[in-house]
Every structure is written in C-alpha cells, then in structure tokens.
From TrEMBL:
A molecular function GO annotation: beta-glucosidase activity
Keyword line: Hydrolase
The Fibronectin type III-like domain, residue ranges: 690-759
Designated name of the protein: Beta-glucosidase
Protein family membership: Belongs to the glycosyl hydrolase 3 family.
Key word Hydrolase present: yes
GO biological process per UniProt: glucan catabolic process
C-alpha cells in the first residue's frame, strides 16, 4: 500500500493539502474547524483514552489550553498533550494531528513557566531586540511541551485607559505597536514555522476604542481612522513577519460585529492587507453574534455568518461549528466551497508547522527549558528596561550614605501584585476561585473549562514560580548596609487605614521612604484592572492616595512607585513625590529589576508607550490626534485644566543627560527614501541608554492629518561623553494615508521631521519639501523605517 501524498514530507504543501482535502468526509472537514478544551479528555482525574478516541473520531482542529486550564507541571503537560496527540494520529482514519494553543502575552501561561513583564511593560522598553529574545524563550518552552500556537501578541491600539486590557497591549501608537509586534512574532515563529510557534495577532479590529472604555462594547470609527491607525499594527506583522493567524475582536465597528463581518475579515484583512492564514475566533465570539450582537437568530445563522465572513476556526469549544453549521450546509445556506476554503487554511498551517512529521512534544527536553538562569536574567533585564522614571529631583539613584529606608505600600511585598491578567496563576483564578461570581443574567460571561475540584493534579491553583518582590529585591541589593523597615500601610482596595500609623512611623525614622502603590490585575473580581475590568475613575484605588499624602507629611524624602497595569491619573502624587516611577506588571523578577533602577545599578531608559492624562475627563488624549485635536477653542484649555497631558507619550528620565546636534535631512520626492540623521551625545557623567524618537508631520494634507506621528525610534547605549550618529531611513510609503477618495497615497508638499527624547521633548526639527506627483501605495506594502548607528 503506497503512502498517501499528504504524508510525504518532501511534497509541496499545496499538493499535500489538496490530497488530504480530497480524502476527507464532511464530518472530518468540519472537525478541523472545531476545538475542544484539553480538560474534556479527563475523567475522574485520569486521562481517558477511550473517551478521547470517541471525541476525536473525526479528528479536531485545535485543543484549548493545557497550561492555563490545569495545574500540570511542564513534564506532566507534555505527557498529557502527547497522549491526546497519539489518539489523533494513531486512532483516527486520516491521522491528522491536533494543534494545542496557549496564551503568552507576558510569558507562557503555564505553571512553572517564566513570568516575564506584561505586554505594556515590554512596550515600555522600546527595545524590539529584547522583545524578540523574550519571545525566543517563550518559543523554547512552548516547543518542549508540544504547544504550537499562541494567542498573542495583542496589537490593539489602546487609546482609552478606562479599558481594562490596556495592560496586555503595546500602547497607543500604531508604529510602536507594529514594531514590537513584529519583533515578538519573529522571535516565536522564526523564519521557518517548523522550528517555531504560530502566533496570533489580536484583536481585529478597533477593539480598544470601545464606547465608554467597556469590554465588548461597540466601536464607532470612520474607515480612514480604522485603516490608517487601527489596522496598521496588523498590517506590519503581516508584511514584515508573515504572522500565521489573526483573531477577531469581540466588538462591532459601526454596527458590524467583527466576527461576522466580510468587510472586516475578508475585504480589509485579506484583500487590502494581504493576510492568507486562518482567522481564529476569540473565545465564544461566534455564538455572541446571536447572544450579544443580535445579528443572528440561531447558532446556525451565527456559524454561517462567521464562516462566510472569513472566520475559519471556532474557539475555545465547538458550539456553532458543529451540528448548527452542518444543518446550515444541508439546507444549502453555506456552500461546501466555503468549508473547503477554511479547511485548506487550517491544514496548510498544520503542514507549515511540521506537526505531521513531528506531532509530539519533547518529554526529555522539557525539564531543561523552564526557569533557567538565563531566562530569569532576561526577565530581570526586561523589568529594569521597562521601568519608567517620570519625575526625579535628584533623590534617585539612592545615595550611598542612606542608612535607613522605609519601604511602604501594598505593592511592596506581594507577589500576586506583580502579575498581569494573562500571567499564571492570576489568569487561572477564573477557574479555581469560584467563577460563578461572574454572572450576566444567570450566565457565565467568560468561557472557562468545567473542572471539578476533585480533578486532582489537573485542577488549577495559585502556583507561583519564585517571585522577587520589591522588598526582597531591595534587601538583596542593599544588603546589611541599609536598614529597611517595612510597613504595608493599606490594601489595594478597601478603606482600612489601620496600617497608616505604622507606615508613618517607619517613614519618620528613615532617610528615604519608598512607597509602592499598586493595582491588582486579573479577570475574577475583586481586581482593579484586566480583561472585563474597566473603570470610570483612573485614580489609585482604595486609600492609597491618602497613604501617600500621610507619608509626604512626615517630611521624609519620598519615592513613589506605581505598580499597576492601569494608566492612572497621578497629578497629585507627582506634586508630592521627590521621584515618581511607573512600573507596569513586572512578573517574577519585578523586585530585582526595580531595585536595579532605584540603586543605580541600571540607568533607567524606559519610556511611556501611552499618554498619562491629568484627569479622566481628558480622555481620549494620545499621540497622533488630528489637526485641531490638541487644544480647546477659544481659550486653548478647559475651564478647569490644561489640555496637555500630565506626561506625554515617549516620556521617561535618565540619571544622565543627552545632547542632540547636527540634524541633517536628505529628501527629494514622494517615491524616494528620506534620510534623517542626528548626532546624540551622552553629556552626563555616567553611562546610559537613550531612546531616540523620530516624529513627522504632514504640514498640509488633503484630509486632516495627525499633529505628530511616530515614524521610528532606536534605543542606544552610550558611555559618558560618547556620541553616535543615528540615521533614520524613511520610505515615503511610511507617510502614506487614505485620502478623501480612500486611496492610500503620499502627497507632495512640506513635511516636518522632529527628533527628541519624547513626543514633547523635541531637540531638533526641520521642514523639507517632497516634490513630485501624488504617489499611490498599498498598506500591505509599506516599508518600515530603517535605523542605523554610526
């Protein structure tokens, strides 16, 4: 008996796909568009082979999360997956392997996996190479356990800080998000998916700009804004990193639910942006076409709408793409050709991943790629690089003559507060901490696996890797030379002030007081931020602001660290503190990384990937507002506030200074690359890193253009007195936009190029004229800005 063509590893992938597709029954095809929770294969705390064989009788497209849905250690996780995979490969007619997907926004969401900083913290490094290295570490861990698909990165342009998922994103600017996203995808996928992990760009599209900042709420955006801004990070990872999969948004855009919109998932994503891989459903979003958006009256209609819009795989479980979809096919409402198109995409991905040849995780290697010294060192580096010094009157770095330090606040010694909402174990709380608390009309809003408490080792729990809190980090960094007195002061939430007295006493007796206030990220309340946990008030929660005020009144020099995934309003604190630091959810090495900054072991260079408003009433406020958006007529301000932000996009201080000089711009026309060069010198007395930021402005456009747009950036290290020349090469397609006729064009005329240390700290700028005719481009062909250092 000859080997089927689809099992020939030397054959072309397209030929293998067609050969396999031609042999599949309708049931087997539908199964490839479906998904099952990993825990569905467990009965009475044991993997059930016979039950699994029945569930997989026609195969299955994907398996939903082992890591975030169980408490299995990696060596147990890979054995569990391999057992499932063995049934799929050896006990089904065609032997099509399954794909296991996991989450990895800030590290693999799996017990014992390295907990790197959350997505917003990674963006704060402005260091794509670091992000790529972190993604590489995640890749090693995922490969070892056999998981070949991750539901990351988050590419939402997050311009409303009330939205709870800002912490998962890379911030508010499409160029920064796209650059970080490309680095993340490259680190995980590699140039050959057989050696990598299929990544998922999410959430397509406009998800973060919902009405009221509410999760799943409708989005009202014009097409020009949707294409130029919100689609751009996705365009970047498609054209520059060949991202494998895309996930839809839960929201509707101008009345079109993304999960069921042909205009969004096909005309925009595939036709305009050039994506050709599978689109996977955000959890339960197909059935939400019926239950939330009310655009389908039955689950079958929802399935039909989603599939024909271009949504290929239903996650996390099969609700609509099973019998409801089959009924639609039988009644002639869904053509078989549509089914075949989606199945082709799924099969192609499986062949690209090489799982037909290598379906199993490496049970021998798994113990050697989790929590290695190198991974922990990388996590610590990421924390230090992401820490943003917002203000500093010279108190930092902490002086050598300090003998007594008071460490105060709820975030000072609580490993749980170092977690983001998609870190394990905070994410697993939705399973092990009474998910029945989350209700909407008697139904659970959040899709979670049904896991009884008797499921033994499969049942998730509060299992942490070794975490270093700020208290532990400072004790290690300062040793016996400095006496550290710790007082919690208060909780993140609540009105208990009973700890104030001890905190004030500790501060009064100290040379310096460091107060670590915090948020609590998660999905299951009570938390302050995270998916589904949106807010109308951006102040610190509970009585934390009162705690800071009480410590400030002692007169002891005060350093405030804000450890939170929320973008907070910090105007009062900025006035009270001698130094103010933003530390987004930092993960397992948070305390060490923070101590590296406070003590001066590492010179800070973290920069804001978002704008910090003075008050919630300023929202939306962000880099890239269109002409006229940065002021209020007639008086250029509000009656109770300036229109400027408290801290602008790109802001962050160093312990040294940098001087910019000799700006040079070489430009010709709308088709030739533009070169912008600047000399940057470390004019201080200590080595440090600077994030050199290039901004551009189209002085006169045929439509209202952004006041200022980020075009490129580079984080560079300079010794004291050292200078380097940074050259940005900007292709004119990077300046393109959708004009009044929705053509993607670069128009001739005047352009101002600005270089500086933040979007408001501009050190040099020059206006030049681009000659020539209107140049017509396509968004899927935009050339990323190239940066060289000499």
């Amino acid at each position: 008996m000859s080997t089927p063509l689809y099992k020939d590893a030397q054959a072309a992938i397209e030929d293998r796909v067609e050969d396999l597709l031609n042999q599949m029954t309708l049931e087997e095809k539908l199964a490839q568009l479906q998904c099952l929770w990993s825990i569905d294969f467990v009965r009475e705390s044991v993997f059930d082979t016979e039950h699994t064989a029945e569930l997989l009788r026609n195969g299955i497209g994907q398996i939903t999360r082992i890591g975030a849905a169980t408490s299995l250690h990696p060596h147990e996780s890979v054995k569990f997956l391999n057992a499932i995979q063995r049934v799929a490969v050896e006990q089904t007619r065609l032997g099509i392997p399954v794909i296991l997907h996991e989450e990895s926004v800030g590290g693999l969401c799996q017990r014992d996996a390295t907990v790197f900083p959350q997505g917003i913290a990674l963006a704060s490094t402005w260091d794509p190479e670091l992000v790529k290295n972190i993604a590489g570490a995640i890749r090693e861990q995922m490969l070892s356990i056999g998981a070949r698909h991750t539901l990351a990165p988050v590419l939402d342009v997050a311009r409303d800080p009330r939205w709870g998922r800002v912490e998962e994103s890379y911030g508010e600017d499409p160029v920064l998000i796209g650059t970080m996203g490309v680095a993340y995808v490259q680190g995980l996928q590699t140039e050959d998916l057989r050696n990598g992990i299929a990544t998922t760009g999410k959430h397509f599209l406009g998800y973060a700009m919902s009405e009221g900042g509410r999760n799943w709420a409708p989005v009202q955006l014009g097409l020009r804004e949707l294409y130029d801004i919100y689609a751009e990070p996705f365009a970047a990872v498609i054209r520059d990193a060949n991202i494998a999969t895309i996930m839809n948004s839960y929201a509707s855009v101008d009345g079109l639910p993304c999960a069921g919109s042909y205009a969004i998932l096909t005309e925009l994503l595939r036709d305009k942006l050039g994506f050709d891989g599978p689109v996977v459903a955000d959890y339960s979003s197909v059935e939400l076409l019926k239950t939330h958006h009310n655009v389908a009256s039955t689950l079958g209609e929802a399935a039909s709408l989603a599939l024909q819009a271009g949504l290929d795989m239903e996650l996390p479980a099969t609700v609509c793409y099973g019998e409801p979809l089959r009924a639609e096919i039988e009644q002639g409402r869904v053509p078989l050709s549509v089914i075949d198109t989606s199945v082709r995409r799924v099969l192609k991905l499986k062949f690209q991943l090489g799982i037909f040849e290598h379906p199993y995780g490496n049970e021998e290697a798994v113990e050697h790629v989790f929590e290695t010294p190198e991974q922990r060192a990388l996590a610590r580096e990421a924390v230090a690089k992401s820490t943003i010094v917002l203000t500093n009157d010279g108190i930092l770095p902490l002086k050598a003559n300090i003998k007594r330090l008071a460490l105060i606040g709820p975030g000072a010694d609580d490993e749980r507060l170092l977690q983001g909402d998609y870190h394990y174990p905070s994410h697993a709380e939705i399973t092990y901490l009474a998910p029945e608390k989350i209700k909407s009309e008697g139904e659970l809003l959040m899709p979670t696996p049904t896991v009884a408490s008797g499921n033994g080792s499969y049942f998730p729990g509060p299992y942490f890797t070794p975490h270093v809190t700020p208290l532990a980090g400072l004790r290690s960094a300062l040793g016996n030379d400095v006496e550290i007195s710790y007082a919690k002061g208060c909780e993140v939430l609540g009105t208990d002030r009973s700890g104030f007295a001890a905190a004030e006493q500790a501060a009064s007796a100290a040379d310096v007081a460091v107060v670590v206030v915090a948020g609590k990220s998660g999905l299951l309340r009570p938390v302050t931020v995270g998916e589904g946990n949106d807010a109308t008030n951006l102040d610190l929660t509970g009585v934390q602001q009162e705690l800071i005020s009480a410590i400030a009144k002692t007169g002891t020099p005060l350093v405030v660290v804000v450890l939170s995934g929320r973008v907070h309003t910090l105007a009062q604190i900025a006035e009270q503190a001698n130094a103010l630091i933003q530390l987004f959810p930092a993960g397992e090495e948070g305390g060490n990384g923070l101590a590296d900054i406070l003590t001066g072991k590492v010179n800070p260079a973290g920069r804001l990937p978002v704008t910090l408003p003075r008050s919630v009433g300023q929202i939306p406020i962000y880099l890239g507002m269109r002409a006229g958006g940065d002021c209020a007529m007639f008086f250029d301000d509000y009656i109770d506030s300036p229109t400027t932000p408290l801290f602008p996009f790109g802001h962050g201080l160093s312990y040294t200074t940098f001087a910019y000089s000799n700006l040079g711009v070489q430009a010709s026309n709308t088709t030739q690359p533009i070169e912008i060069a600047i000399e940057v010198r470390n004019s201080g007395e200590r080595a440090g890193e600077e994030v050199v930021q290039l901004y551009g402005k189209d002085v006169v456009g045929s439509v209202a253009r952004p006041i200022k747009s980020l075009l490129g950036f580079k984080r560079i290290a300079l010794a004291a007195g050292e200078s380097r020349t940074v050259t940005f090469t900007v292709h004119p397609s990077r300046l393109a936009f959708h004009d009044a006729r929705m053509r993607f064009v670069t128009e001739p005329g005047d352009f101002t190029f600005s270089i500086g240390a933040s979007s408001s700290d501009i050190r040099a700028e020059q206006t030049i004229q681009l000659s020539g005719e209107i140049a017509f481009y396509q968004q899927k062909e935009v050339v990323a800005t190239r940066v060289t250092i000499a």
